[in-house]
Each structure stands twice: as structure tokens, then as C-alpha cells.
Design goal:
This protein has twelve helices and two strands. The chain is mostly helical and 263 residues long. The chain has one domain.
């Protein structure tokens, strides 16, 4: 099939327009949570162009060609392969019940679920996945999440989460597959499956005014939710902190006045 150069040029222009939304603003780097914003935006631009040409088309083709039941089975297999990591991290966080549930899920789905193709533990045993990773574990232990960090080819992270990802790699069964073809093939299928599941979210990202900021804030929100198991404490803005201080001072003054009258 003859390669359509005009389509390539149009696609490249489209990708650059999308990436251009992440151009570096003058105040980049002033956010204490994102001190490396200038570098991060450049990496984000590169990742966006690569995704536009490689991962997104492959993921869309995968969704269009592979039937949904098959895709669900593929997702289930990779979720099941992640259960040993869930076991370890739940244990490290002192979550005994979740640790046992993760052990149960891995044993049941590996055997009765035919290697994890079917989520028997979830559908029949009513035991949903208790997903935890070492980045979450570190933050539960009190380690700050650290500055925002966009990793080339991989995407949003933080210093703590990136360090956690390195540790988590040692808990992935695919890491220990000696056959290079099988190992790289497994990681490739995993990447396509993950990208396909993210298509709806990334389509929203493409339509946003500043995709970089939206991706960053969505990442912060998702990770915070994960660390606190869906119940994160409220984060107050500086203005709200001032309001609380004023209310506390007023309350203290009122109590002091009441005590003075009582005398």
C-alpha cells in the first residue's frame, strides 16, 4: 500500500497543534508542586506527539478489531498478574484484610479463572481488586509525594511514584520471563491494553484548554484518592486557611470574654 504523505503531514500538524497547547507559559516553575514545569511541558509535548502517531492509533485499532469480551479477558490477565504486588504492598501498609483478599483473588483467578482470564473472585466471590503500589506505600509511610515529574514515553508521575514504579517492576511476573520475545510481547500487549482503556479520558484531555495542566491535576487527584483509599481529607486553599484562623481567633476571643464575665 502506498504511503500517503499528505495524511502524514496533516497528522503531524494536528499533533503539533495539540502539543502546542502545552507550550511553556512565562510563570512556569512557580508552582511549588511542579518546580520543573518547563522541562515537564517539553516532555509532555514529546509524549503527546508520539502518542498521536503510535499509541493512540494502535489502541483505537485494537478496540475496533478485538471483541470486547476478549479485551476484558486480556485486562483481567494483567490485573491478575498485578495481584502479588497488591499482596506485598497491602501487607506493608498494615492492611491485613486487603492482603488476604488479594491472596484469595490471585489463587482463585489463577486456578478457576484460567490464569486470570475470568475474574471469578470479583464476580462470584464478591472480592474486588485492592490495588496498591509501592508509591502509595511510601506515602502511607509518610514520605512526601515529591515534585511532579513527566517521564519520557510513560507520562505523569512524581519523584516518589517514579521510585515506587522501579520497586514495583521487581514484583511484576513479566519481569522474570527469560524469553525476550515473550517478555517484550507481554509488555507491548499490556501497553496497548492500558492505552485502550484510557481512550475516553485522553479524548477529554485533547479537548481541554491546557492539556498539560489538566493531566497534572487529574494525576494528583487520582493518586491522592488512591493513597487514601477513596477518602482523602479535605485540602484547604490559602484563603480557607485564613478564614479558619480568623474563626479560631474569634472563637478564642469569645471564650475569653465569657470567662471574664463569669468572674
Amino acid at each position: 500500500m502506498r504511503f500517503n504523505k499528505l495524511s502524514l503531514a496533516a497528522g503531524f500538524a494536528s499533533a503539533l497543534v495539540l502539543a502546542g497547547c502545552a507550550s511553556v507559559p512565562p510563570d512556569a516553575g512557580t508552582n511549588p508542586e511542579d518546580p520543573w514545569e518547563k522541562m515537564n511541558r517539553q516532555t509532555f509535548m514529546m509524549n503527546t506527539v508520539l502518542d498521536e502517531f503510535v499509541m493512540r492509533p494502535i489502541a483505537k485499532g485494537y478496540v475496533n478489531v478485538v471483541p470486547e469480551p476478549v479485551r476484558t479477558g486480556v485486562t483481567n490477565v494483567f490485573v491478575n498478574l498485578g495481584e502479588p504486588s497488591n499482596v506485598v504492598n497491602n501487607a506493608l501498609q498494615g492492611k491485613g484484610e486487603d492482603t488476604l483478599a488479594s491472596v484469595f483473588r490471585f489463587l482463585i483467578n489463577t486456578t478457576f479463572g484460567l490464569g486470570g482470564i475470568f475474574d471469578v473472585a470479583g464476580t462470584v466471590g464478591n472480592q474486588p481488586e485492592r490495588r496498591e503500589d509501592f508509591g502509595q506505600t511510601l506515602q502511607v509511610w509518610g514520605v512526601p509525594r515529591g515534585p511532579y515529574f513527566v517521564i519520557p514515553f510513560l507520562g505523569p508521575s512524581t519523584v516518589t511514584d517514579a521510585a515506587g514504579d522501579v520497586v514495583d517492576c521487581f514484583g511484576e511476573p513479566m519481569t522474570y520471563v527469560e524469553n525476550d520475545l515473550v517478555s517484550w510481547g507481554s509488555w507491548g500487549v499490556y501497553a496497548v491494553d492500558l492505552r485502550a482503556r484510557m481512550l475516553p479520558a485522553t479524548d477529554l484531555l485533547r479537548d481541554s484548554i491546557d492539556p498539560y495542566v489538566m493531566a497534572r491535576e487529574a494525576y494528583f487527584s487520582t493518586r491522592r484518592n488512591a493513597v487514601y483509599d477513596g477518602n482523602p481529607p479535605l485540602e484547604l486553599t490559602p484563603d480557607e486557611f485564613e478564614d479558619e484562623d480568623e474563626e479560631a481567633e474569634a472563637q478564642t476571643a469569645s471564650e475569653a470574654a465569657s470567662a471574664e464575665k463569669a468572674k
